[in-house]
C-alpha cells in the first residue's frame, strides 16, 4: 500500500480576527471564500472587499491587513481506510500560525520558509472534521520578535530580520509592502502504513567517464519491520535493506552523459526512481530527474588579486547573469507557465545564470525544474538580506531548520551551482556602521561561516558555497573590493554617472543596475493620475528607491535634457537605463578573463513599479532587456577606451573559433568614411582579443558629428564621440513598411539620417505585443527589420506611428520624420 495523498485546497473560508483598523465592510462580510494556496490579501481582492493593492495608492489603504489577525477554516469529510498513520502536511504557512484539528492544537509555526508535518489520525473522526489555521498579524509579530531578540540594523521600515517571513513582503526599494498572511503553498493529508520516504537526497559526482550517485534516503517509520530501498537509473539498479531510519544507495552509471549549461552542450538529465518496499509490497516511491555535472568555484589568488570563477565540468563559464526576485509580491500566483515565460525572456537576453536573491524565497520546484531542463545555471541565496540577524533562539533553530530543508530539497537540481550565505550582510557589518549599533550583539556570522558551509558540506557537497555576496575570499580585504571575489556596484546609481562603470576592473560583479520606468502599457494600467507626471501621487507610490526621482534625473541630464512630456520622459529614462547597463556589461566583458562574470540587478519585478528590472511587473520587456541581449551576445564586438586611445575588444563565448576580417571605420554622421583600418583576427573559443585603433581612426576632428564603427562578420560595435546631448543630430528620418508575418507583422525601417537607438515601443499599440529587437543604430541608407508578434487585431499603420517608433534622436532633435509605405496587410489585421 503506497502513500495516499489527499489535497485540502477546496472549501476554505477566511475571516478577520483581532485588529483595530479592520474596515467595517470586511467585518460585516464575515467569513469569505479563501483560495489555497493563497493569501488573505488576494482573497479580499477576489471578494471585492479591497481594491487592487498594485494600483494607484491602494498599497497604503491595505496596510491594515498586516496589522490584523485572520482565521482560516475548512470543514472536510474523512473515512478510516485502515492506515497506521495520517499526517497533515503544510508546504508553507505565511507566517505566525496556530493549527487546530477538531479544536485541538496540533501545530504552532513561525516560519514561512519551512514545511510542517504532524500526525493527526488520533484526532480525526469518521465523517465531518474541522481544520482551522489562526494567523497572527505579521507586522506586530515582527515588532514583538525584535523586542525579544534585541533590535538589530536592517534596511527599510519593518524589522523583517526578526521574523522568518519573506523579507521583501514587508516592502523593499522596488517592492510593495504587502505583509499578508495565508496558506501560501499546498496542504494535504497523507495516509500510510509501515514506513514512508521522508527525504530523498541525490549527491552526484563523476569519475572519469562514469557518473557516481549516492542516494541518501531518510525513512519515517510507523513500525520496525524491515524495508528495502531500490534505486533505478539508466538501466542500473541497486538496492539495500534498511533496519533503521537512514540509508545510502550508491550507483555507478557508466559512460554518463553530462549535464551542461546553456552554450556548452545539452543539459542532459536522467530519470531516477527510488522505491521503498516492505513485506506487503511498495510502501512509497519518488521520481526525480537528475544531472551529472561537477562544479567548483576557483578563488586561487593571482597577480591581480583574487578571482571568483565558476567552473562546470572543469569548463570556465563566463557568467552572463541576472538577479531574480519573487515574480509576484504574492508568490503563490506564479505558476509554471509564468516561470517559463520569465526564463525564456532571460534566455532572449542571452542570460546563462539566474541568482535567486536572499530577500525572497527558496524558489519552487517548477522554477528549478525548468532551469534544469533548459540549462539555465542557478544560484540560491540563503534567505538573509541587508540586515543583522540574531544568533540566539528561537531564530537560530528556525534558520537552521529552514536551511536544512531547503538544501535537502534543492540538492537534486543540476542547475544549482552556488549556495550563498547572505545578501550584503558581510559588507553591512564591515561598511555600514553596524558594530557600534550592535554593541556586541550577534549579527549572523555563525550562519555564514559555520552553519551554512557545514550544512552544504553535509547535504550537498556537489554544490559550491560562498559565505556572502559580495565577499572577499580568504578575508584578504574588506568585502566589496573589486580586486577580490564578488562585488556589488551601487555607488554609480546612488552618487555618480554611468560612464564611470569603466573605472572599475572587478573580478566578478554580482549586483549592479540602473533604474527605469515600466513600459507604457504597464504604467498606465497601474497608475491613473490625471495629469500623469514623474512626480504625480501615484508615481510617487510606485517609486520605492530613496531619492529615486532625483537620481533618475541626475543620471539623465548629462546625456539628454529632461523631457516635459510624460511619454518622452518614460522613453528617455528607459533608454538611459538601457545605455547605462549596456555600457557596464560591455566593459566588464571586455575585461575577460580578468573579469569572470556580471549579474545584472534585476531581471524581473514583483509589481508595476519604477525599478532596476529588465522585465516589468506585468511581464513586459523594457528596452534594458534588449541592451542585455546585445552585451551578452555569444559573440561581442565592443569599442572601449584603452591606454589613452580606443580599442576593439572581441569576445567569443562559443565553442567555435571566430575568424574573419575586422573592419574599423571613423565616419561622419552622413556615412562618409574619414579613416579606416582592417585586419584578420582569430578569436579562440571562449577567448578575448584586443585590437588597438590607429590614432587617425580613434581621434575625431569634429566629435559632435563623428563616430567609429567596427565590424566582424555579422556583429558590429559603435563608438560615438559625443553623447546624445552634445551630438549634431537631426530628427530621425525613416522610411517604413509593414508586411504580414506569422503571429504579427514585419516592420522594415530604412534610415535617411544617422539614427541612434531605434526602437518600437509596441506595448503602446497592443498590450500583448513583443518585438524581437531594439536599440539599433543606423547610418543613412541602412535598414533593419523588426518582427512584432501580437494576437490583437491592430491597424497596420499603428506600429509605424510617431511615439511607437522611438529613437535617441527624438530626445535632442525632436520627433522623427516617418514616411510609411502602403501596408501589405488585410485591413485591421496585424
TrEMBL record:
Residues 200-293 form the Glycoside hydrolase family 2 immunoglobulin-like beta-sandwich domain. It is an enzyme of class 3 (hydrolase). Its EC number is 3.2.1.25. It catalyses: Hydrolysis of terminal, non-reducing beta-D-mannose residues in beta-D-mannosides. Residues 12-185 form the Beta-mannosidase-like galactose-binding domain. The keyword Mitochondrion does not apply. It holds the Pfam family Glyco_hydro_2. One of its GO terms (molecular function) is beta-mannosidase activity. Signal peptide: none annotated. SUPFAM superfamilies: (Trans)glycosidases, beta-Galactosidase/glucuronidase domain, Galactose-binding domain-like. GO terms for biological process: carbohydrate metabolic process; glycoprotein catabolic process. Keywords: Glycosidase, Hydrolase. Belongs to the glycosyl hydrolase 2 family. This is beta-mannosidase.
